[in-house]
Amino acid sequence: MDWERLVQFALEGSSGLEQYAILLVRVSIGLFFAISGANKLFIAGGTKPVYETLVKANIPFPRQTAYFVASVEFVCGSLLTIGFLSSPASVALLIDMTVAVLTNALTTMPKGLSPLNWLDDFLYLPEVLYVLFFGWLICSGPGGFSVDYWLAGKLLR
């Protein structure tokens, strides 16, 4: 067994596998948002919970905003799934989730927590994890298994 390679892998990971990790995260989170947005848009009463949340948060034009948010989730999630316009789609979804954290998720957190316990609960929120994933996808790019990568190869070479 090559101990040096094993230690190197344990300490540095494997850049050869990075494209598969990006693909897995991009497609999984893209499908999640595409399905979530589709359920809100195409299932009767699907925007009702979003609308109620927006009303509670005093967001202007809650009905229109609910459809806008659902459309952003559906369209950008679909784009992310296939890896087309991945960075703009990730930016839009990052903004969507940041607003969700600020208008809704923070209100669900218990009051009176110590700073460390508050941070623990905050980092446990799925919306926060989505924000981190979108930030990573914006910085890493969509990976080699994407329409963006193929298109960049055609346009820039």
Question: How would you portray this structure in words?
Answer:
With 157 residues, this protein is mainly alpha-helical. It has helices spanning 3-12, 18-42, 48-56, 62-82, 86-103, 115-124, 126-140, 147-156.
Short synopsis of the structure:
This protein is mainly α. 75% of the residues lie in helices and 0% in strands.
**Backbone shape:** flat
Helix content: over 70%
Mean of pLDDT: 93
Task: List the total number of helices.
Answer: 8
Radius of gyration: 19 Å
Number of strands: 0
Low-confidence stretches: none
DSSP strand content: under 5%
Distance between the termini: 41 Å
Spell out the helices and strands N to C.
HHHHHHHH
Largest sheet: none
Alpha-beta classification: mainly alpha
List keywords for this structure.
mainly alpha, 75% helix, 157 residues, single chain
Topology:
Elements: H1 3-12, H2 18-42, H3 48-56, H4 62-82, H5 86-103, H6 115-124, H7 126-140, H8 147-156
Helix pairs in contact: 2-4, 2-7, 3-4, 4-5, 5-7
